[in-house]
Amino acid sequence: MRIDILTVLPEMLEGMVNYSILRRAQDKGLVEIRLHNLRDYTTNKWRRVDDYPFGGEAGMVMQIEPIDRAISALKSERIYDEIVYVSPDGEMFNQSVANQMSMLSNIVILCGHYKGIDYRIREHLITKEISVGDYVLTGGELAAAIITDAVVRLLPGAIGDEQSALSDSFQDNLLAPPVYTRPADYKGWKVPDILLSGHKRNIDEWRLQQAYERTSQRRPDLLERK
Q: How would you label 167-192 residue by residue, b for 16+ Cβ within 10 Å and e otherwise?
């Protein structure tokens, strides 16, 4: 998989893509993550990529030309499955969307900034719009980081135990059950006996029951999707 992220602030993402699971996935050759500074694609001598909006609304708008030039340059090198724009009014990002995107080969993620992007970009260049929540961020970099991390960790071999990802919260529309580690008794706070029994079938049944109970209590809306 290859993920190209277009941003005016690549420095915000450099640390994220060079540590932990994302770094290991790249070292294994499972994913290639490239950061592109949109200022490198502008013809403006001051490297500006924004301008005032038509109609006099407050704020600045990202211009169409540098974004079009950046996307065109990338598309001249390979075919992209999705050109993603992260936006508050996009499709809500969840585990199901992450699963679908993990099956793709090449993705571009465009990070908005300022007041937003020239709407013609969304009409003619973007193939998928994604929101990470009902709130507004200063820019799309944090949202791009969330999407990238959620997708890459699903790639086979990205994490040491692939079964671990399958038991994460939101897989199968269930929250994950409680987890514990040593010591089994700390200040009288004990690990449930079932987890110490060594009886795999009973443990699996307990975990599934806990997952349903926690989901019913905390996110009953997820059970409606099953």
A: eebbbebbbebeeeeeeeeeeeeebe
| Predicted structure pTM score | 0.86
- The CATH number assigned to the domain holding 111 equals 3.40.1280.10
| In a shared domain, residues 40 and 132 | yes
Q: Dihedral, CA atoms, 168, 153, 86, 32, nearest 10 degrees?
A: -170
Distance, CA of 40 to CA of 27 (rounded, Å): 27
Cα separations in angstroms, 39 against 59, 77, 120: 19, 20, 19
Per-residue pLDDT tens over the stretch 104-151: 999 999 999 888 899 999 999 999 999 999 998 889 999 999 999 999
Structural domain total, the chain: 2
Are the CB atoms for 108 and 6 separated by under 8 Å? yes
